[in-house]
Amino acid sequence: MSDAAMEPGQGGSAPLPASYDMSEVGDWIALLKPRVMSLVVFSGLVGMLVAPGVGAMHPVLAATAILCIAVAAGAAGAINMWYDRDIDAVMRRTSKRPIPAGRIAPASALAFGIWLSVASVTVMWMATNIAAAFVLALSIAFYVFVYTMWLKRRTPQNIVIGGAAGAFPPLIGWAAVTGDVTLVPIILFAIIFFWTPPHFWSLALWAHDDYARAGVPMLPVTAGARETRRQIVIYAVLLAPIGLLPWLVGFSGPAYAVVAAVLGAMFVRHAVAVLRDRQDDTGRSLTRDAPARACFRFSLYYLFVLFAALAVDHLVFGA
Amino acid sequence: MTPDERALFEKRRRGRNIAIGLVLVSLAILFYFIGMARLLRG
Hints:
heterodimer; A: 319 residues; mainly alpha; 0% strand; flat; B: 42 residues; 1 helix; transmembrane (chain B); Protoheme IX farnesyltransferase (chain B)
């Protein structure tokens, strides 16, 4: 029987399509928030690289642990997109995501997120140890239940407490190597925890209208832009000495301390520039939030360079 | 469903099946290497 003799939809077994369309795969990948994933993977990798005994870890198991951290972050992101599909639809920045755009059904996204969550934790346990799998499961649960479902729509402190969800990867990376969690990974956790508010509020300053439209109580919406600028400075000032903690506890050498001090001072300078931005009576920027955009960009470099310096200091200089 | 819609649907389904197949094969390879790595390291 010739395939060409049959027309689709006219009964009998349908012919095999001549080609395939992989465009849908891109939408599933977009559910995993790949841009957020890159920073998560990097901080998890650094947590792993600076852990004692990493040299004895089989490279396949180390690579699998990083893969699990990436997939778990993506899974949590997919569940977050399922839960937040109503507010994503009204925010300009997120309205083209696969669920609000109607390209993926909400229930499918939820199933995808749950399946990947279970798979990532299970594979992490198989490849490394139960401590790493437990912290990985905790990070997913914290992001989904504490940040997304509880805090995000209720309090302007949402990203202060919820920021902890993004601070877990170094703990997971460290635990994957050592099987425990000690002071150093907790310091790395603290660095990301105190870095998150000034990073996110810099973005929220210029995305203020989006959050207001969606009814998300981000600090610029509830307390105003002026208070947000003040809080950015407070957290940047707190972050500077916390960035030095690995050196203060004797884990890193002077090379790291110099990098951390310079980066901390630069972050404070960017935060002060946000505070001093030309504003109207309500604190809204008259410069299209140029200092806030610069502060946001710098915050990304800050975390990348600081963690890279920690890893280099530890691996190259043997601090 | 028109013939064009059906053709598009089948193209997408085929793409999805290929993606799922690749993921499953990757998982099988991953499990093999995890098993070997754990065995080799005791």
